[in-house]
UniProtKB/TrEMBL annotation:
Ranges for domain Glycosyl transferase family: 315-457
MF terms (GO), sorted A to Z: glycosyltransferase activity
Keyword Transport recorded: no
PANTHER family on file: GLYCOSYLTRANSFERASE
Keyword RNA-binding: no
Keyword entries, A-Z: Glycosyltransferase, Transferase
Natural source organism: Ensete ventricosum (Abyssinian banana)
InterPro entries (alphabetical): Glyco_trans_1, Glyco_trans_4-like_N
Protein name: Glycosyltransferase subfamily 4-like N-terminal domain-containing protein
Amino acid sequence: MAFSSSFHRPKKPHSNMLSLIPSFHTVLLFLLALSAVAIIFLHTPALSPCSTTATASSSRRAFSGDLRHVDFSWNSLRLTSDRPPPTALRIAVFSRKWPVATAPGGMERHALTLHSALARRGHRVHVFTSAPSSGERPPEGGEEEEEPGRPRLHFLSDARWRCDEAWGLYEAEAARGGPFDVVHSESVALFHRWARDVPNLVVSWHGISLEALHSGIYQDLARGPDEPMTPAFNRSLAESIYKVLSEIRFFRSYAHHVAISDSTGEMLRDVYQIPSGRVHVILNGVDEDKFAPDTRLGDAFRAEIGLPGGGAALVMGVAGRLVKDKGHPLLFEAFSKLASRHPNVYLVVAGSGPWAQRYADLGANVIALGPVPPSKLNGFYNSLDVFLNPTLRPQGLDLTLMEAMQCGKPVVATRFPSIKGTIVVEEEFGYTFSPNVEALLEVLEKVVGEGKARMAQRGRACKEYAKSMFTASKMASAYERLFLCIKNETYCRYPSALLD
Ligand SMILES: *[C@@H]1O[C@H](CO)[C@@H](O)[C@H](O)[C@H]1NC(C)=O
Ligand SMILES: *[C@@H]1O[C@H](CO)[C@@H](O)[C@H](O)[C@H]1NC(C)=O
């Protein structure tokens, strides 16, 4: 099996990680203990190489050839975005939702950031999406006319997604304005029935079932001893294996796949058996103007939320929905223990959900902010020494980790393939932990032991990496190049005399 050889690859020692690099023996024991289902799945993380070893990054720099065959992320290529594209593309986008709410999901934010950038570059972008629900303000973008610089939005009659209706609108637009160069589907917005016959289709996967199966395993393991497994959870866990099987069968007929993390790319190639020339890794990006280091802003935010200025030994922060599968039971327990030993360590909690009240009851060391509006997020990240994300369900790639790193903050996150393979790829960037209270507490103790100054130093390395990988402009350049390459093979060559 392929996983055995991956252990012979030279790896950077991750001495600060909790689990030792598993010996082959340990892996064998593990595999024996798990079902066949788990075997298929669990060997995948071992296939993720530490992607920024010196050799890996120099081979990226040296890469030349057909872009369709690169297996690392396109974000690390030097694709220029300062000159206009050689041709304006006509792009159709299928997205179940288009951001209207104040706190849109990661997939919607990605769609908006990407397609607004492509429209600004002069491409003609048409978005097929569900209507805003009643009470929501209409989103930005031209609704009626094809307006240069903005995506043209085509709304369904209803807030509920109906693929057949969206397909009808798409066909009408193709009949009116001519065929599209590329059809882009955000996850399964365009259903298989229509998608399988589209030769110039690109699907971006914001989470696949194999990742859902992994998170199901972690969620069950994180269940307390007195907490019964609900029948609904048991059913969904059992069903997830059939979802993986079904995805493996139907994904193959999609023309091009974009994986938004390195590990998803490996799963699509290695487990889903999609030829590597049709799997492309393009990481999501965050707006580098909205998230940047700013000490003054961070201090102002601390004062505003009542954090003791110089009195705090260390400030940790967490953001997102405060629900069980985001790992809050683990963080709650680990942090209450930590706070009893270190009264000067603070936790700032941004977001709402069932765990909000418990955090609020934890005492003076926790500042529960409730939902933080997007305009305040930069201040929030900047007020921290370290950002935590204990998620048990990291489908796709969590934008909060990228945002924190763009603000120059180190991160502590669950040891998942996507996080290890794309985010915390260097020891310097922070810590990963196995999702249990002891492991998390041990990492938090290390963070406290290292102190603020060391966190700030780690944060600078994070910013450098984030700048080189996670910017919205890098994401947009990568998609633009992929779309050009799908229109005309000449543009698949890299570097290209015409473009690079
Ligand atoms: C979960 O479902 C399986 C069968 O799919 C059953 O064997 C097992 O006992 C169930 N576990 C719980 C805790 O309900
Ligand atoms: C592809 O692009 C190149 C360079 O712009 C051009 O010379 C060629 O004619 C194009 N091919 C097709 C099939 O459009």
